[in-house]
Amino acid sequence: MNRTATRIISLICAFLFIVPVFAFSAFAAEEKPFDNSEFYTEGKYTIHYRVFEAENEKGKMLMLHGFACSTSTWEPIAAEMVENGYTCVLVDLPGFGYSTRETEVADEDVIARESLVISIMKTIAPINEWHVAGHSMGGGVAMNIACLEPTIKSLVLVCPCPITEVTGFAADMMASKPMGMMANFIFEKLTKITPLLRLVAYFAFMDWDFTMDYDLTPLSKPLQIHNTGYSNMITSVRAMPNDFEKISKLEMPVFVAQADKDLILNSTMKQQIADALPNATNYVVEGGGHMCNENRATEISEQILTFIEK
């Protein structure tokens, strides 16, 4: 499992030992969750994405969310970017948000999530017109896309999480039905316990006032879709690992924002990114948590705009 998934699931499991058990329930995905929702279908996958169009467009930016998240986590930065002339396309990766759950796709029908995202980009505009942004796990996916499509305009990483390969017994265990049932139990019950979910959100934002005013629904609703937890396990097993030798040879401009109060990424993981991208433009979000792309959106957007427009 990638390290972000491991840390989040460990945290969730720890909390669940101290809370009461609530009745099982799940939400079904809506046909069109948002007014700007679009869907891309390839093989067994239907991928949900949202287009935020800018007037007098200067450029296009693709945005990829982190583990257990969805398009909503990029909304604050997308709003800032659109206001400054950049059309933003926010994608729900397979297994997350309102895209196909990996439990619905047999091994022989798997398409790499990087390939699906690249196909969406190419249906909208030539690949060399895109800036690609990723947060956390989405940062790992974004780095893979940059390796596959080195003509993208730039790579923007916010608290990027390295993606490692899962093999052998660990892979078999994670993809097993018992693990899937446990993961479903965790995700579907956690989202019903508002105080607990708000506490987890605080650890993600490291901002109490923002957390107390935060609308948890965009976070919790997709997690309540049945088999989201199991799908997350399968996604981690099927994930394309980062090849840091290839990443170190990327030639496009790269921006990396790290948060100094990030409880998900440890110093080793941050150093791995820094070592692989020695020529990146770096920025530290002082006092920021792992999900600083939401509560520090204006600050980060200003840095991204300065980076891509210099």
One letter per element, helices H and strands E, the order comes to: HEEEHEHEHEHHHHHHHEHEHH
**Radius of gyration over C-alpha positions, nearest whole angstrom:** 18 Å
Helical stretch tally: 14
Q: Unreliable segments (pLDDT under 50, ≥5 consecutive)?
A: 8-29
Describe the structure.
This protein is α/β, with parallel strands linked by helices and 310 residues long. The chain has one domain: Rossmann fold (3-Layer(aba) Sandwich), CATH 3.40.50. It contains 14 helices and eight strands. Strands 1-2-4-3-5-6-7-8 form an eight-stranded mixed beta sheet, sandwiched between helices. The longest helix is centred in the first third of the chain and has 14 residues, at 3-16.
Briefly summarize what is shown.
By secondary structure, the protein is of the alpha/beta class. The chain has helices at residues 3-16, 75-83, 113-124, 137-148, 168-174, 177-190, 194-205, 208-213, 217-223, 228-238, 244-247, 267-276, 292-295, 297-309, and strands at 37-42, 45-52, 59-64, 86-91, 130-135, 154-158, 254-259, 281-285. It has a single domain (3-309), classed as Alpha/Beta hydrolase fold, catalytic domain (Rossmann fold, 3-Layer(aba) Sandwich), CATH 3.40.50.
Question: What secondary-structure arrangement, pairings included, does this model have?
Answer:
Elements: H1 3-16, E1 37-42, E2 45-52, E3 59-64, H2 75-83, E4 86-91, H3 113-124, E5 130-135, H4 137-148, E6 154-158, H5 168-174, H6 177-190, H7 194-205, H8 208-213, H9 217-223, H10 228-238, H11 244-247, E7 254-259, H12 267-276, E8 281-285, H13 292-295, H14 297-309
Parallel strand pairs: 3-4, 3-5, 5-6, 6-7, 7-8
Antiparallel strand pairs: 1-2, 2-4
Helix pairs in contact: 1-6, 2-14, 3-4, 6-10
